[in-house]
Amino acid sequence: MKQHLFEQRHGADWQRFESRLASLENGKVERKDCESFAADYRHICQHLALAEERGYSSHLIDQLQQLAMRGHQQFYRHRSHLGAQIIRFVIAGFPQLVRREWRAVAAGCLLFFGALIGMGLLTWLFPEMIYSVIAPEQVREMEQMYDPGARRIGRFSERDSGDDWMMFGFYIMNNIGIAFQTFASGLIFALGSLFFLLYNGLVIGAVAGHLTRIGYSETFWSFVIGHGAFELTAIGLAGAAGLKLGWALLSPGRLSRTEALRQAAGQAIQLVAGVILFLLIAAFIEAYWSSMTYASAVTKYWVGAGLWLLVVAYFLFAGRSRHAPD
Q1: Cα–Cα distance, 46 to 137 (Å, whole number)
Q2: Quick one: how far is CA 150 from the chain centroid?
Q3: Measuring CA to CA, how many Å separate 98 from each of 144, 187, 214, 220?
Q4: pLDDT tens across the length of the chain (326 residues)
Q5: Which of 221, 224, 281, 302 is the most buried (most CB within 10 A)?
Q6: In Å, how far are 140, 142, 143, 144 from 137, measured between CA atoms?
Q7: φ, ψ at 190 (rounded to 5°)
Q8: What is the DSSP string of 88-116?
């Protein structure tokens, strides 16, 4: 590309970036300007590299170098520490992102929870349905795990209390593996995420319906209600992130598929970061609370209901302050 065409195409962007730099240097800048500053700074660095590679005039290269240097100073001056960024993301950024991406979130949760509830009802009404998705030996294992006479509930129910930390690690690896599988398979034009959302919903629903029908409802529901608020929500959100990737490939609009995927991935990866946070919380609750039998079922129901209300309130209201717009 000739230099004058390059300047015509990007000149307005350079002027806007220079104006933003002046505002930052004078301490007069709005929050929305800071949020897009990092991306604009990267573009300036890319343009500088292109100008040098193509041998454009020293005047243009000097101009871009000055912008890049000033941008570098402001970027590292205003960049928050990692800890502050994480706290800000947890308190406001993650729920704001979920609300912005409500279409993908609604699609992922409807597929997952719809399959779960539907299969649960079918298995409760027609007991043989469980064998269409779960092998007979696995059904027997589930019955043993949630037997009301067991000392502890859930996987490896006969472990000692000192092994809880080992189970915490197991739950983390298992749950994150399921979530990553559901997310990453969205690259297969959303078909992978669609499959895993439905499959996981069908399996969980079949187990719930079967155990409820054979009289293990109190043991099962008191176990899952606590950590389920975070774990099940995380699976739905992981599917939403995968569907977002797939939709970018299926319907990129005026963008190339590569560019559409790049833009979608930025939001999807942030969703997955929140999913991992939720799965860590779920693993902790499952290892140290859900499997215990010293608390009554009623107590677990109350705690579980409170956790579900907390999750719902978090996504509806967190990050809605005047200084943290959606």
Answers
A1: 58
A2: 34
A3: 38, 20, 38, 30
A4: 788 888 888 888 888 888 888 887 776 665 555 667 778 888 888 899 888 888 888 888 888 988 888 888 776 665 556 677 788 889 988 999 999 999 999 999 999 999 999 999 999 999 999 999 999 999 998 888 887 876 556 555 555 555 556 666 777 888 888 888 999 999 998 999 999 999 999 999 999 999 999 999 888 999 999 999 999 999 999 999 999 999 999 998 888 889 889 889 988 999 999 999 999 999 889 888 887 777 888 999 999 999 999 999 999 999 886 444 45
A5: 224
A6: 5, 9, 10, 11
A7: 75, -5
A8: HIIIIIHHHHHHHTHHHHHHHHHHHHHHH
Closest Cα to residue 40, out of 60, 66, 20?
Answer: 20
Token pair 């009623």 in the structure block, residue: 298
Locate 96 and state its tokens: 């704001």
Contact 269, 184 (CB under 8 A): no
Both structure tokens of 259: 């560019």
Q: How far from chain centre, in Å, is Cα 286?
A: 20
In the block, tokens 């100008």 appear at: 51
Sign of the C-alpha dihedral, residues 229, 119, 244, 321?
negative
Candidates 173, 170, 183, 165; CA nearest to 273 is: 183
106's tokens: 């609604």
Q: How far apart are CA 35 and CA 324, in angstroms?
A: 11
Tokens representing 273 are: 């970061």
